[in-house]
Amino acid sequence: MRIAMIGTGYVGLVSGVCFSDFGHDVICVDKDASKVARLQNGEVPIYEPGLDQLMAKNVAAGRLSFTADLAAAVDGAEAVFIAVGTPTRRGDGHADLSYVMAAAEEIAAALTGYAVVVTKSTVPVGTNRQVKQVIAKVNPQAGFDVASNPEFLREGAAIEDFMKPDRVVVGIQNERAAEVMAEVYRPLYLRDFPILTTDLESAEMIKYAANAFLAAKITFINEVAGLCERVGADVKEVSRGIGFDGRIGNKFLHAGPGYGGSCFPKDTAALARIGQDHAFPMRITETVIRVNDEVKTRMVEKLRDACDGSFNGKIIAVLGVTFKPNTDDMREAPSLTIVPALVGGGAKVRVVDPQGRAEGEALLPGVKWEEDPYKAAQNADLVVLLTEWNEFRALDLKKLARKMETPRMADLRNIYSAKVAKRAGFATYTSVGRENVK
Questions:
Q1: Which segments of 111-191 does DSSP mark as H helices, in order?
Q2: Ordered domains of the chain (ranges, CATH)
Q3: Which of 214, 276, 358, 418 pairs as cysteine with 435 (C-beta 3.0–4.6 A)?
């Protein structure tokens, strides 16, 4: 089957590579000629474990190629995926659909035969019908249908999520489109992975509802962590205790410095705005957004307390700045709130992150980048564990403490424990919702 993937960002590139591994003939399109050239040379512009090898395998097999020529890619394609960005629009919280609609116009002009135009981008309810109107207006003679196929890829585990999904959601309007989408996902049908076929609006809503629920779950446990600190409870034990309940589950119940990334902040804002536009305020989602922002601010105050009330003149080592491990993504990361507060308060900040430097250098001015956590901790007054990379899960804490001017740790991911930190020689240990060493 011939597939055109419009957009080679995170979703488009991962999806295109994985579709080619299904055996489809996939052409990935991007307007950025330099990016296309890099892809053609085998360079992967994002960090996703295993993506480089999978891409090289399918390029070598002749099933995967890259181009800046959208018309050539769409010509003869049976399914055309739109996987362009839908960032939050400044000022009103809406998802910016300008890239989606621009892609729809170009696809319309390039269509030469029947194709299903599939929106992979995260878009508000009603967008696929707008895409259909745009294509029909630009090319009234075009033979096409539209489909909604939202992505559910976790950065750092995207290939596994694509190949072994919890579910695939497909929104369609007729049987012909359903048949094309069934062929697209035939390998998953054969392996009995859940394929949910629904109407366009339900498919669009499923994406937002899922991410808003997960964001709410994270925010809930972060709020519980704050109360645990007041009453002397251990949020890790609380999380385990409620997570054993099958109605709740143990995922997304890890207290920390708040959620970030490319999806949760954008999608919760968009869902809240959709509710406002339809005179049905999404009050839980609106509260989740507000509380998540407050959590990040609370982390800054936690660090200030660990520095005896002031950052001024302190040397602080920050371990991890990406929004989560196994990605280079800095979008809406807690570090973008916390690190500037440290620098603005007069601290000398050293940063270590296995993949974050490429984006982080522009986003976190005024910090010094180090490759080694022990070097970053040399003569430091505080070390902050901000992203739970595997590299930071088995640190030699005794060595780390000896390197520091004042051995103090703020473990904002609850990787270690008060007993372990105290035994290693830390004078103070601050965590989230658990016992501390003071």
A1: 127-138, 158-163, 175-184, 186-190
A2: 2-198 (3.40.50.720), 216-438 (3.40.50.720)
A3: 418
